[in-house]
Specification:
The complex is a heterodimer. Chain A is an alpha+beta fold. Chain A has helices spanning 9-24, 31-41, 50-62, 86-119, and strands at 29-30, 66-72, 78-84. Chain A is globular, with a radius of gyration of 17 Å. Chain A has one domain: Winged helix-like DNA-binding domain superfamily/Winged helix DNA-binding domain (Arc Repressor Mutant, subunit A, Orthogonal Bundle). The longest helix of chain B has 41 residues, at 332-372. Helix content of chain B is 53%, strand content 15%. Classes of the chains: A alpha+beta, B alpha+beta. Chains A and B meet through helix 2, helix 3 and strand 3 of A and helix 2 and helix 4 of B.
């Protein structure tokens, strides 16, 4: 009997999926690289939890937004590489525009509040 | 949800492990490259990654279809629990197999006998039409139709699309050179009969209108006869076969599915070829069954009203003949199944009752198990198991039991059905009964229902109580769980009540059967052999020849050593044959408007009454003294019932009878004999005996009373017949005892089946009682230990437990007896020798149930009274 102990996991999952897809635009990568890229590009603000990375990857594969194959890593180890599919690319576009709308909306709300409080 | 992923979960998991491994390797390499020592790098990498099994868990669940997974787990779990208690499982499966098997068998037969459409075109539109009398004293409701009536109905009414008639007949079938003679049943059908039913012959054709006349010599074979006697060779078409020494040309073979009216009818000839021309337009010569096809635009009531109008007119036109007043319809299925419908319904009720008891028993057993697993359930509940999960698991268990029972039961029922078809002779279309899709669907439905009903109550009752209470109760119980005990006792009460109803019903039927079997037919039944033959008309064409045959046969048999008496008639008492005629008494002129008088008509030769030891009350028997055969027929003998009814307080001797159907002559009463029973479960009917040896009677049933085992005489007697006529087949070689047994055959089967169900139910109920009480006792072990330790006497403890068990038994008995009184009304029509509220049956049932209940209770009670208080206090 699994208990869901992360009430906001849905939202996190969504953004993680989007970021994974974005990462793969630069080329195929395996799990470790994907995590590293996300961490580095976010200037180490975002830490990718392994507990959600792999389920997310499998979920994306399940939805056919990424495909996978076994290859050799930079250190010549066997690793599973993920590649963005055409489907995934479309999804990324959709997600990105949704995200931008969302951040703009949130920004508008937050910005006004801040401006108001600053004025007093 | 992804099915592919679900079934490839293992592989996905392995891949994930590999991925994790490669991740770790990368992480370690990275750290080592930064100058961290290998050991420390590995540690840090592990810390960074966190719990790898948690990742695997998450993914595993992500890939899982929960319903399927849960079901699979429940299934595994249930199988394991059931295997852990093989005794319980086997018993439960056995109970269910019996219940489901019995009900499936009966459903098979009910479906074939009562529900399945006949193999005719549009059978729902076919009806039988019978004549209907208003006479009260004669037990005929649906009277067969006279040829004249049929012809008038067909010509003068237009309510039916068409009407056809058939009449039963008997032939001696033999080859062209009189080889292999055999007696066969046949039907004489009007030319439109087969086309009306929509039956096309498999080979050849059926009768044409021109062929339907007196002296016609064409015959249509049934498929059975075609296969059996002619090897299925189509070359028989156009060939001749001999029926009662007369050649007939085979013109067709009917399809395999055609077994109307039953499988015993082997061939068909034209209607008018077996209806003598002098009777063709008779309104009183009742021989024919009329089948009619309804018109779509005319209601049945309207069509029948038209026929009834014609019949009422005929009735008015022939006031002195047996012409009925009206017509009455009956569906074909009812017509064929009328004799089995009621017994089958009774059996269905008995089986439903047993099924109920089986379900209750299973439920009870499951409740007991639920109680034993109380702690387990409580702990699982405490660990977070949802109530629905627990219920589902228990339902799965009862489902598995019922499924296993169902599979076994269906196998059992296939065997049982075969046996029943062989034993139950009156069953129509017996050979078409087989297990098919509908029956399997029925069995599955039954399994589902029983599983649900037997499993649900215990499952609900054993779960869903507060966790703490459950845990506490299992630690130290003194009072036991009251509510559950009440539930079990309630179930038990219902179970016992149902058992009592079954026991009472079966007891009544059994007593009824025993009484009927012991019925005194009021004639000799020990050491009496009977045997029938029919003389072919072609060969025995004069009354001298017929009489000479009968007389010389009787003389020859009388000379056989060991034969005490021999007689000849058309039938014997106890066969249930009902053949009657309308008569009048010239000495008692009938007032107009009075109903016609009707009586059974039997034939007897001079030795018949002596052979059957039927006493003569007054007058004399028939004699052979009158050498003028023609005048022998003018004397009749009546029975006591006849004399009482129509000659009360006067001497019937020398009075006369007029029977319109026999001509204008008057028949003089020369003797009165004692009553016999024409049927074991009917009172004696007024009967007229006619002289058998008057020259025109071709059919004969020999009655031979012997000194020893009558069956030993069958061969010597058949040799005497063969010595007189080697081509003459003999049929129905039976002792009088066998005749009585035969007429009760189905009653015997029905009685033994209901009895079997009742005994089975009794066993089930006592097992239930025993189980409940044993369980209660184990629950109360501590309490009893304290009682004994405090000085309770063994005897007191014994009584305590015994009464605890007997209480539901007594309640059940009470309810059951009350219910039985209502139920006996339903089976009243089966009971002839017994009153529905027969006190002895009710007493015996009560005593039996009490005895069995006490027996079931005594073992646990005894064990309770022998408890060692120290051990008892230490348990748990």
């Amino acid at each position: 009997m699994a208990k869901k102990n992360q009430p906001d996991s849905e939202m996190l999952k969504g953004t993680l999926d989007m970021m994974i897809l974005r990462t793969l635009v630069g080329g195929d990568a395996h799990g470790h690289t994907i995590a590293k890229i996300i961490e580095r590009t976010s200037e180490d603000v975002l830490e990718v939890e392994q507990g959600s990375l792999y389920p997310a990857l499998h979920r994306l594969e399940d939805r056919r937004w990424v495909s996978s194959y076994w290859g050799a890593s930079e250190n010549n180890r066997k690793a599973k590489f993920y590649r963005l599919t055409a489907e995934g690319r479309k999804q990324l576009v959709r997600e990105t525009s949704r995200w931008q709308q969302m951040t703009r909306a949130i920004g508008l709300v937050m910005g006004e509040e801040l401006a108001g409080s600053g004025g007093e | 949800m992804n099915w592919r992923r679900f079934f490839r979960r293992k592989r996905a998991d392995a891949e994930l492990m590999q991925e994790i491994e490669s991740y770790m390797a990368e992480e370690i390499v990275e750290r080592v490259a930064r100058g961290v020592p290998a050991q420390e790098a590995r540690r840090q990498a592990h810390i960074k990654f966190g719990n790898s099994s948690a990742v695997r868990d998450t993914l595993w669940q992500q890939n899982t279809i929960s319903v399927l997974d849960k079901t699979g787990r429940d299934l595994r779990y249930s199988v394991r629990t059931l295997l852990r208690t093989p005794g319980f499982s086997l018993m439960a499966i056995g109970v269910m197999a019996l219940c489901i098997g019995a009900s499936t068998s009966l459903f098979t037969i009910v479906q074939s006998a009562l529900l399945k459409p006949l193999p005719f075109r549009d059978p729902a539109n076919l009806v039988m039409v019978y004549e209907r009398y208003r006479l009260n004293e004669f037990p005929i409701w649906y009277a067969v139709v006279a040829p004249g009536d049929y012809l008038d109905w067909r010509a003068e009414t237009h309510g039916f699309a068409d009407m056809a008639a058939w009449t039963p007949w008997n032939f001696n079938l033999s080859g062209e050179h009189a080889e292999l003679p055999e007696a066969v049943r046949a039907g004489g059908s009007t030319w439109n009969f087969f086309s009306l039913l929509g039956v096309r012959p498999t080979l050849g054709r059926t009768f044409s209108e021109a062929e339907d006349h007196w002296g016609a010599d064409t015959v249509v074979l049934t498929w059975d006869l075609f296969e059996r006697r002619f090897g299925g060779n189509p070359a028989i078409l156009g060939k001749q076969i001999h029926l009662s020494s007369k050649p007939y040309t085979v013109i067709g073979v009917l399809p395999r599915s055609f077994r109307y009216p039953n499988a015993k009818v082997q061939l068909w000839v034209p209607y008018q070829s077996v209806t003598p021309p002098e009777y063709l337009h008779s309104y009183a010569y009742h021989t024919s069954h009329v089948v009619a096809r309804q018109r779509p635009d005319v209601s049945l009531a309207n069509a029948i009203a038209q026929v009834s109008n014609v019949q009422a007119r005929l009735h008015a036109g022939y006031p002195n003949q047996a012409v009925s007043e009206a017509a009455i319809p009956r569906t074909l299925n009812d017509d064929l199944g009328s004799d089995v419908k009621k017994p089958l319904l009774l059996l269905v009720c008995a089986v439903a009752c047993m099924l109920l008891i089986g379900c209750l028993n299973l439920a009870n057993l499951l409740v007991a198990r639920g109680a034993a697993r109380q702690k387990e359930v409580a702990i699982r509940g405490a660990l977070g198991a949802q109530r629905w999960t627990l219920i589902r698991e228990q339902l799965m268990e009862s489902g598995l039991i019922c499924l296993a029972g169902g599979v076994l039961g269906v196998a059992l029922s296939i065997a049982a059905t075969r046996w029943m078809i062989g034993t139950w002779k009156d069953l129509p279309s017996a050979s078409s009964i087989h297990v098919d899709g509908a029956i399997l669907a029925f069995a599955s439905g039954l399994v589902f229902l029983t599983a649900l009903s037997a499993g649900f109550l215990p499952a609900v009752s054993s779960t869903g109580k507060p966790v703490l209470a459950g845990l506490q109760a299992s630690v130290r119980t003194v009072g036991g769980s009251l509510s559950r005990t009440a539930l079990r006792k309630g179930l038990l009460t219902v179970e016992i009540a149902a058992t009592v109803v079954l026991l009472v019903a079966s007891g009544l039927l059994l007593k009824n059967f025993l009484e009927l079997r012991a019925t005194d037919l009021r004639c000799a039944t020990d050491n009496v052999l009977t045997m029938s033959y029919s003389l072919p008309k072609q060969k025995y064409d004069t009354s001298d020849k017929v009489t000479a045959f009968h007389e010389s046969l009787l003389d020859r048999i009388a000379l056989l050593p060991g034969v005490q008496a021999v007689g000849l008639g058309e039938t014997v008492p106890g066969t249930g044959e009902v053949e009657g005629d309308v008569f009048s008494i010239p000495e008692h002129p009938r007032s107009s408007g009075e109903d016609l008088s009707i009586a059974l008509v039997r034939r007897a030769d001079p030795g018949y009454f002596r052979a059957l030891q039927i006493p003569l009350l007054s007058g004399r028997f028939f004699t052979r003294q009158d050498p003028d055969v023609e005048h022998r027929g003018n004397k009749v003998i009546i029975n006591d019932a006849f004399a009482q009814k129509w000659f009360p307080g006067e001497n019937p001797m020398g009075k006369h009878l007029k029977v319109p159907l026999w001509g204008d002559g008057e028949y003089e009463i020369v003797g009165v004999v004692a009553d016999t029973l024409h049927q074991v479960n009917a009172p004696p009917s007024p009967t007229i005996y006619l002289q058998q040896l008057e020259g025109s009677v071709l059919h004969g049933t020999l009655v031979v009373r012997t000194a020893g085992d009558p069956l030993l005489f069958s061969l010597p007697i058949q040799k005497q017949i063969a010595a007189l006529d080697s081509e003459l087949p003999v049929s129905s070689v039976l002792t009088m005892r066998q005749i009585v047994g035969e007429s009760l055959g189905d009653l015997r089967l029905m009685t033994s089946l209901v009895l079997a169900f009742a005994v089975l139910s009794l066993v089930l109920a006592s097992v239930g009682l025993y189980g409940v009480l044993s369980y209660l006792m184990t629950q109360r072990t501590t309490e009893l230990g304290i009682r004994i330790a405090l000085g309770a006497q063994r005897g007191q403890v014994l009584w305590l437990i015994l009464l605890d068990g007997l209480r539901p038994a007594l309640f059940g008995l009470g309810f059951g007896l009350i219910l039985s009184m209502a139920v006996t009304r339903v089976i009243r029509s089966f009971l002839y020798g017994v009153k529905p509220l027969d006190p002895s049956v009710f007493c015996i049932v009560t005593l039996t149930l009490l005895a069995v209940a006490t027996l079931a209770c005594i073992a646990p009670a005894w064990r309770a009274s022998r408890l060692d208080p120290m051990k008892a206090l230490r348990t748990e």
